Amino acid sequence: MSFKGFGPQALPFFKALAFHQTREWFEENRATYETEVKGPFGDLIEDLAVAFAKARIPLKGDRKASLFRLNRDIRFSKDKSPYKTHAGAVLTRGGAKNDKGLFYIHVAPDGCFVAAGFYHPEPADLAALRRAIVRAPKAYAKVIAALKEAKIEIDDEEDMKRLPRGFEEVKEPEIAAALMKKSYIGSRPIAAARLRGPGLIDDLVGFGREVAPLLEWGWGAIVDER
After folding, report:
1. CA 72, CA 111: separation in Å to the nearest integer?
2. Does this model's pTM top 0.85?
3. Domain-embedded: residue 53
4. Number of structural domains the chain divides into
5. Is residue 5 part of a domain?
6. DSSP helix/strand/coil, 167
7. Which domain holds residue 30?
8. Per the domain annotation, does 3 fall within a domain?
């Protein structure tokens, strides 16, 4: 099926789920989740994968591999709430969730957004990204400038307080600031009204084109590093 929009009860479902958080309530309302959220999200991902291929944006996904489970992993968490109160899905270059570099879509009552880049990469990958910045700081600066020009929000997560090991000799303030980042992510809010129609696909493809320099830079640093 082609994506026609999330259902009108998609966001209200998550508001109610945040309050109830019981298996009994969820089972009574499973049909709403399946028809208003999960089904449309699967359609969106598969249509988006086709649109990305046509636009020559190297990101893949499908309804089986891309959607995150609604159940929370509570084994090591103090919060024992069994369900997430949002829906999320990810497309990657190879199509698997754990591939390097991601394109993430988040649907929640308190804010929907799309993000892409490298979120909390593994230590070896993070070191490779940092080496790429030191090796070619102008190339990295050009990527960031392109994101800002496109009005893409740059990750503002709290950075490290000091330069990471192996980069202590860097003196240039802008390069040092970039090296202290823990993630390299660009994002953009999605208006709730855009969830309700197929125009969301065009919005996401547009974002994919604009954020592509960040993904290409990171793939080059991690996968193709010389």
Report:
1. 19
2. yes
3. yes
4. 1
5. no
6. coil
7. 10-222
8. no
